[in-house]
Amino acid sequence: MMGNKSTVRAAFIAVTTLFFAWGFITSLIDPLVAAVKGIFTLTDVQAQLSAFAFFIAYGLVSFPAAALISRVKPVPAILLALGMMAIACLIMLGAANLAIYTLVLVGLFVLASGITVLQVAANPLAAALGPPERSHFRLTLSQTFNSFGTFIGPFLGAVLFLEGVEVKEGTAITPDVRAAALAGIDRAYFWICGLLLLLLAFFWFNRKTVAAAAPVPPAPRGIGAMISDAVSSRWALLGGAAIFLYVGAEVSIGTQMALFLNSDGIWGNSDAPFGVPLLGHAMGSDGVPGVSLQEAGKAVAFYWGGAMVGRAVGSVLLARFSAWRLLALFTAIATGMCTYVFAMGGVTAGFVALSIGLFNSIMFPVIFTLTLERSTASEQATSGLLCTAIVGGAFLPLLVGAVSDQAGYVAAFVVPGGCYLLLCVFALLAGRTRTVAQPSVVTLH
């Protein structure tokens, strides 16, 4: 028995809150990279270690998480994940109070490890908590809240982390500004910890009801067996490479967007963005000519907001056009946009860069689905490999940081541009390959 409708509805709301929470927490990495660069006087590569510490967890934890959930079922795994995330927030509080960057990296890794377990466990729950005929609606609704979390995270993070922080060459951060930024990090993760503990309490007291609605997990499989199955399929490997490139490109752009917009060659000496409706209002000019790092950080929300809008538009387009054609079109446009930024620079390049998020929107779910349709490995193994490939968000930002250290933020767009070009090739290959099975597993990003 699933229990009465009101209890099941409350359980679904709690699960959807998980989607929002991990979207919000993940997108806080963007302003955090800019903040730690100033707080700890880091190079771009060193600052990008924050993204590395977070996304490397996907590469290390995805398969173990799938194996764990196949043995202990989703609800205990969710409780474990929320506990890990709460502990990670406490580590972040310690890092902010002690001003130790290494501790920040440890906290981010533990936090992302919990999120990885959470994602693997929560997706089937969102589909199961209610009538089967409305499972697609529930997954879409949960994903919408995930996108909303990624939209507001960078804005609130910029408000809390970047007040007065400067990273341009020749500028220095004052002790008061540094203390205020660390206090903002402290406040953010304190309240996130509180939210996680509330969710942990809810799932604990309603664990029997939620567990009754959870789908029956597949038969337990060892990590080695799943990996062997996944790597036996050419298309599972191709899909894994595509996810690696996509997430790496998306995270690389997002984590350096504030630094890019704040640079003198883009918006650093321009007031043009403040004249754009909604964008200018959200950035909130401080009256000083040019765009400060905090104002640029607020603008990053529109990069992720574009992805949120694009998912809504993309879902309509996918009902009328084949997925591989739409992916080829969106990746080609993103390649062109990165090329424009690299070749032209200037104020307009800032607007073009922010707009890339609109075309990122459908890439993850379409790559995922195209791969599942063509993979000869089991869906469980293929999904595990694709989730592991999110580790691209750890490695490619380091490469982008190295390029920006040597050649500047504009030149660094050549890296995501190359990723999108390869993704366009992936889409064209998918269009020439027959499907072998229809996917039944839905994984959200």
From TrEMBL:
Keyword Transmembrane helix: yes
Pfam family membership, one: MFS_1
Occurrences of domain Major facilitator superfamily (MFS) profile (ranges): 11-435
Keyword Cell membrane: yes
Location in the cell: Cell inner membrane
Transmembrane regions: 51-70, 77-100, 106-129, 141-162, 188-205, 235-261, 301-319, 326-343, 349-372, 384-403, 409-430
Highest taxon listed in the record's lineage: Bacteria
Alphabetical list of SUPFAM superfamilies matching this protein: MFS general substrate transporter
Keywords linked to the UniProt accession: Cell membrane, Membrane, Transmembrane, Transmembrane helix
Name recorded for this polypeptide: MFS transporter
Annotated membrane topology: Multi-pass membrane protein
